[in-house]
Amino acid sequence: MAKKTMKTMDGNTAAAHVAYAMTDTAAIYPITPSTPMGEIADEWAAQGRTNIFGQKVQIRQMQSEAGAAGAVHGSLAGGALTTTFTASQGLLLMIPNMYKMSGELLPGVFHVSARALAAHALSIFGDHQDVMACRQTGFAMLFSNSVQEVMDLSLVTHLASLEASIPFMSIFDGFRTSHEIQKIEVIDYEDMKPLLNTEKLDAFRARSMNPEHPDVRGTAQNPDIYFQGRETINTYYDAIPDIVDGYMKKVAKITGRKYKLFDYVGHPEAEKIIIAMGSGCEAAEETVNYLNSTGEKVGLVKVRLFRPFSVKHMMSVIPKTVTKIAVLDRTKEPGALGDPLYMDIVAAYAGTKNAPQIVGGRYGLGSKEFTPAMVKSVFDSLAKPKHGFTVGIVDDVTNSSLFDCQCVDTTPEGTVQVKFWGLGSDGTVGANKQAIKIIGDNTDLYAQGYFAYDSKKSGGITISHLRFGKKPLQSTYLITDADYIACHNPSYVNLYDLLEGIKDGGTFVLNSPWTAEDMETKLPAAMRRTMAEKNLKFYTVDAVKIAQGVGLGGRINMVMQTAFFKLSDVIPFKKAVTLLKEGIESAYGKKGPKIVDMNNAAVDNAVDAIVEIPVKAEWKKLEDDAPKASKEPAYVKDVMRPVLGQKGDNLPVSAFSHDGTMPVATSKYEKRGVAIMTPEWVKENCIQCNQCSFVCPHSALRSVLADDTEMVKAPKSFETLDAMGKDAKGMQFRLQVNTLDCLGCGNCADICPAKEKALVMQPIASQTKVQIHNFDFSNKVSYKDVMDRGTVKGSQYRQSLMEFSGACAGCGETPYVKVITQL
Amino acid sequence: MAKKTMKTMDGNTAAAHVAYAMTDTAAIYPITPSTPMGEIADEWAAQGRTNIFGQKVQIRQMQSEAGAAGAVHGSLAGGALTTTFTASQGLLLMIPNMYKMSGELLPGVFHVSARALAAHALSIFGDHQDVMACRQTGFAMLFSNSVQEVMDLSLVTHLASLEASIPFMSIFDGFRTSHEIQKIEVIDYEDMKPLLNTEKLDAFRARSMNPEHPDVRGTAQNPDIYFQGRETINTYYDAIPDIVDGYMKKVAKITGRKYKLFDYVGHPEAEKIIIAMGSGCEAAEETVNYLNSTGEKVGLVKVRLFRPFSVKHMMSVIPKTVTKIAVLDRTKEPGALGDPLYMDIVAAYAGTKNAPQIVGGRYGLGSKEFTPAMVKSVFDSLAKPKHGFTVGIVDDVTNSSLFDCQCVDTTPEGTVQVKFWGLGSDGTVGANKQAIKIIGDNTDLYAQGYFAYDSKKSGGITISHLRFGKKPLQSTYLITDADYIACHNPSYVNLYDLLEGIKDGGTFVLNSPWTAEDMETKLPAAMRRTMAEKNLKFYTVDAVKIAQGVGLGGRINMVMQTAFFKLSDVIPFKKAVTLLKEGIESAYGKKGPKIVDMNNAAVDNAVDAIVEIPVKAEWKKLEDDAPKASKEPAYVKDVMRPVLGQKGDNLPVSAFSHDGTMPVATSKYEKRGVAIMTPEWVKENCIQCNQCSFVCPHSALRSVLADDTEMVKAPKSFETLDAMGKDAKGMQFRLQVNTLDCLGCGNCADICPAKEKALVMQPIASQTKVQIHNFDFSNKVSYKDVMDRGTVKGSQYRQSLMEFSGACAGCGETPYVKVITQL
What we know:
- Chain A is of the alpha/beta class.
- Helix content of chain A is 33%, strand content 21%.
- Chain A contains 28 helices and 30 strands.
- In chain A, the strands form five sheets. In chain A, strands 1-8-17-18-16-19-20-21-22 form a nine-stranded mixed sheet, sandwiched between helices.
């Protein structure tokens, strides 16, 4: 067996590692979540990395996935080992060419980070709808369930494809596997090389298109002979199962990790089993082990080679004792009697005497969570099997869903589970990835990281889920039982249920400027009650202050990472500090000592800034704060608010329109107030150039004009300047920030051309109330109305009229400023 | 019930008729065999025809099928009833949009003339690979099996789609149904109109995209809610079977033709049944009726609504007595346990006690013939059921094929079956279509026409298969038992087995200039033997002579059509002549009386030109002519020759390369000699301009040069001129025709600029031998060799060097002229 090289990487990197080794040419086009595979391979090629043949891989980005598929087809026809990376609609664009590749017996490999398809709505997340839409193309299909399996089985696909002369899809779940970081064993290129069948390679190259020995391809065949030609390939498919099995054994010889076409895990005399594919098998295996440890007799068949489907191989692993089978599909085919894997299992048992009872169910569409609780509910449901169930959602329309019992903690003992709430682009995710690397590469602990984002990207919410443990981590689901939760943004205490699922005695760390006294008013009652009930250790760190102090502005990640190492105790803190600083040196060394010093100072200062806040026993008695009366539309109250509050998983099917439509103009209800720093207007310095308003990417800062009749309605705190310019003569000018929409990017302050900046970024807490009135940006006044005022036309920048309307959503006191934009 | 309007049309026209009625907008892109649907609809729109709403249909051709699908999606979202017409790879390009349409509950209809997909080779012919690649998209799928069913069930799809808010594919088999001409009953637009659910139409329009009531579509949904949103549509699918069934009943009320989601035909206590979809069901039904009439107990389930698949509806029609089921799929999914319909039937019976034994088989890929003999062999095979069979081919590689017994004639009594062998563009197919129309529209006979082509189009072979009978014609296969066979090209007697399957006492008509005496030498021995053994009536018509005589040149179709009416006696000949002349008037009236008169004369002269040739009893004893010794490569002998001889159906799977490759440079072996007229060189008139050689589209006429050393080897009959031009000084010039490659287009004679034409088109028989030596056009002499001769460079036209090589393939006497082209 080869020597072990452990590395911490995600599934995409593992796939790219193998693909790069075995490829002459890759034709690519980016699509989430497959993009990093192509990017990584492209980067390696640019760096001059060589494949097992000692050559750089030729990588070409095409105009679309359709073009990439055409290029793969052409390249294979030309005798080059060719690969692509894709998913979802991108894969669909390749379908026509896929029939050609399989029909012409070309051994290409598609690495697919399987993803949902756009139907009622788009989803960039994982399920098997895309690959299942290609199961009829003649491609072989091999599923990997974890990052380690991507490393191992991707290699099998490349080797088997060449041997079999049939193209393969090497499939793993989008995001859950493609973006999950795991500490895995890497297979060295030198170990891969001897496995390749060079005779087959020579034969493949020999039958390529070549003017030296030309042939005709892509002929048009008539009814007399097309059918016969279509049947010439059958023996190739018959051979695949044994070829794949053979390479699984050969790869096992160098890695020690054994796979079969169908892997059975569980009780040797199981009565009830689940059959499934993809990352869900990891959660299912964990649950099977747990349930058997409690005396049940259950099992799991992991289908690896889905096409060609070998009944013989499957039957050889299923215990004879099985009487009931639940087949789980991660796809949906409306109008079919069952989803594809279910249909296969039924067909596999067709005509068998005393066949088990078989039902099919659907789970995990669009990366919907698939947890041990759900796995258990599937097994429970087999007491009274029901075909066509769903699990993981509440289907209150066709009542297909199983009861989800929420009652098992199957994580292996000793696993540390950590959750971070961050703001998109605040550095939390990057810092966590570094933390995993530090722990993974410097201890014998296994590490897992999965990062949940909303769709707002920069400025959205990020939730990092980290696990560390002595055993490989199979928990392919979000953390539901956390040892440690950190929140990097104080505004979240009012927005999210931050402590959901924290363990008794767990640790909660909050970045905030608040004192113990402040906490009594700033934290919702429910949060404080949970702290008390669960005996949490509660810490606060004013990370913004430290970061600002050392010159890092709003970049608080190094402070919070240090706090994590200090408080979590996953590795000795001293060692952690050394490793952190080594990391800083290697990351920022090139940028000069100043940046390195600032980050080192953030590490050093973090420890002293950690303040433990006593959790009061009396908090146990707190009652929930009264919910604010809301006049919001039903959709906002019933759908949007839960989704924004990270409770969308609980919404039932009936909450949604049938055709995917949603009401318009709902973003105005989402006033998040997540900026750590917002601009403060120093009016004395303002030259009324309006550039700040122009550059604000979120329309959160606007210059406004008011005339005398309006100023009468204005509160005292509404400070203004006499407006400059002929058109605005006699009016009052003001820069108005909506701190609830502001994301604190600072573009306004950066652009300000005044001698002394008229806009200064400040922690929101330090600003005077007068600055933080908010406004309602709506356009209900028609263009004609605005023109009739005849005051602001010809302005180079967006300039706005304003009127007062209602109370400020921020402070509840001074009036809203309603801004009417004119271009 | 509405009054009956019978018309003779093909499946595409029937689909276009209904689609046009029910459509606001159609976005189209042409692809065989669906193209005529879009063309017809476009033509109607241009003519101002109105749909049931009294409006012209808006038809837009896009840049590809992908664009058409996008336009259909957008148009539906905009509230317009929208349609497209497509097939094969075109349909595959629509897949991504199809998920969107079904996910958004948009009632569009795709009319699909189902076609094979390009894999090892392309096929423009019919099977279900394309639609089966879309069965997971959420489209409902309804199959029509005949032209009449296209008319009836297309209407059901439009009505049901609107009612169900789900898009439909209305599917019928490419070519076999799309291009088969049948006399059918047309549904009037006024009868369709009341069937449309106007409330549903209003609701559909009301939920369209509209700035007056905007909504958001095409949102991106995260793991929390995508799954729930994907399940909102289930009730819509649950409702479809009853909706479709309801509209089948409503349409039946106006037409009298009843359909069910699954139609059972056959013995009420059948033990063995076939389950199938598409045009094959017609042949199967015919065979089931025949077999039951011989005492068997067999049946057939025609699956009409394939998606959503309703088990309840299927089970309600299958006799309880059934013990064995053969499921026939017209598609191929390499690596699957069975093809899609088989998988469905197995799943439908899953868990049923005492379920019948179910096997699946494949037939008819790429319009491979599916005949009663094959249907019978499927039933026969159920004695010992074997899953995964093929029928219709000889699979000698994986031995999947059933024995095809070739022993049933199931055509209803009184059906007249007629077969015409023609040359592409000689007018045979057009004349046959006219004949069907004449018979269909002027008698109470049902008529069917199907036209088999090779891929050479103009100049290729056409075989027209016509049936006439008192009952609707279900024989969805080529004619195997002909009452009448006509051959429009005398050269075919040596190329094809023209009399294959002719009935005892049948009629054979040959267009030829040959006398009874000539026949003894011109006709192969086997042909004469068949005539004698089968007691055929044998006629010849020198149609070329008549056509030339009346000024129609090589257009012999009117002569041969008249001969058909005279000899076949399908309708009284006098009536036929009247109808033929009416047809001539309406077809050519606009072109002036001259053309009309020429055609009328062709009709009048045809009768007298029919010469009956006595069939000699002694021909029975004739032995086959000795086969010519052949040095051709194995591929040419074993694959190409049978294919060219219309015997490709008999080639086994082992005859073909596994990956679809074929050898190059094989067309040189195909010397057909099918031109009725070829150019004769009148050398006295020749000005050696070479334009004839330049325009010849088949490189069948070349100007050649020879020097003295070559002329020594030339035969006396090899007449030449002294070559003109400085470079060619001292050489001999000749225009050389290869009459075996010539297709008789006459371009050379047309272009000849000489005062008196130096090229004259003549019936080949009237030419002197000296003109018809043939040549081998090969390029084995290298460019350098040619340059070394230093004689012909700088010529404006292609000019060739030549040498003599072997005997002429045409006359066997004088030498081949081997031509070496220089550009």
